[in-house]
Amino acid sequence: MSFENLKIKKTLQRALESEGYITPTPIQAQAIPHLLENRDLIGIAQTGTGKTAAFVLPILQKLSETNKPSKSRAPRVLVLAPTRELAAQIGDSFSTYGQFIRFRYTVVFGGVGQGPQVKALAHGVDVLIATPGRLLDLLDQGHVKLNEVEFFVLDEADRMLDMGFIKDVYRIVPLLPVKRQSLFFSATMSPQIAELARKLLTSPVHVEVSPQATTVEKIDQFVFFVDQENKDNLLLGLLQHNHLRSVLVFTRTKHRANKVALMLNKNKIEADAIHGNKSQNQRTKAMDDFKSGNVRVLVATDIAARGIDIEDISHVINYDLPNEPENYVHRIGRTARAGSDGTAYSFCAADERDYLRSIEKLTRQEIEVAEHHYHSETARNATGDAAKPAPRTQRGSGQKTRPQKQNRQHPVSRKPRPARGS
């Protein structure tokens, strides 16, 4: 299979080749033919499967075929994304793949002044990529009209639901023309997401490239049982090894993200934090520094990291296990991008033990246990009240023991792996 087989035009193939993309991914191979035939589409795919190009390429092809002049404040394409970072990355994809065709695009999101965004819309754009809140602000002020939209894309619909944006989506959709092509992408298909798709799409084709809630096969996964007070030392020990060269660390709270980044910097490890309390300029700088390698470790919360799409992340470390098992899948999917391998380490304290059990139940696999200097049998064997976060006024107890299986030696104690691609 090639992009030529998918009937992608030469100018777009040229852009793909300039980026080193020769063969389409499964989601691209399955989705692009339907989209070129004007079908509405539901795409179920994890982040990192190439889903952005799956909708960007056919949209750009259709824009280039009709070649209409850009209208002031009236885009032909509307893409809704749940986070600023994801919106920006989708904008980058349009720019990259459309570098040899004539079209205009802009990205609008909150957290920054709207002046430049309003100016771009007034000059006319073909493609508008937006977060729901800022788009509604601009609509209310009359700076954008949606009556000319021919292609509507709702990306990461499951995260839209998680972040409370579905009401905003329902306010935006009635402003779109009834006659349009609608594309709907989500990592999972819950009943709420299925209902949303039913209301937005007309006789859609359904494309799913992998079973829901499964983890990327190329990711090596390990769990470290550790007491909360030893997590910093364990993280520092892991980062002593150079093969952890580009590391994304997840925490459950913004405060913890700041605390971990500060601790790493005090220990001479270049790190920054990204979360909802950071300004857009701070978040953009942190992302740019991480991409360029000026920052080795990026500490993030789930929502802030949703739009991170960087191909060269070698390791994901769950400093805190997520309380929603689906987020584990999203987190570790930040590594092993574009066909490369990746590694995910998860720290599990006693009060996170039930979170780990939920993750293993969802993914239908038992994560391999790594032995290490700070290993905690208390954390490993926690059950009952001890295996879940206790109320602030008391601590749970009641651990039980059970036979142990043979563990693999702590990965950091083994000879470090060579850097990817070496």
From TrEMBL:
Belongs to the DEAD box helicase family. GO terms for molecular function: ATP binding; catalytic activity, acting on DNA; hydrolase activity; nucleic acid binding; RNA helicase activity. GO terms for cellular component: cytosol. It comes from Methanomethylovorans hollandica (strain DSM 15978 / NBRC 107637 / DMS1). Residues 371-422 are annotated as: Disordered. The keyword Cell inner membrane does not apply. A motif (Q motif) lies at residues 1-29. Gene3D superfamilies: P-loop containing nucleotide triphosphate hydrolases (3.40.50.300). It comes from the Archaea. Residues 32-207 form the Helicase ATP-binding domain. This is DNA/RNA helicase, superfamily II. Residues 1-29 form the DEAD-box RNA helicase Q domain. Keywords: ATP-binding, Cytoplasm, Helicase, Hydrolase, Nucleotide-binding. Pfam families: DEAD, Helicase_C. The keyword Cytoplasm applies. Residues 402-422 have a biased composition (Basic residues). Residues 218-378 form the Helicase C-terminal domain.
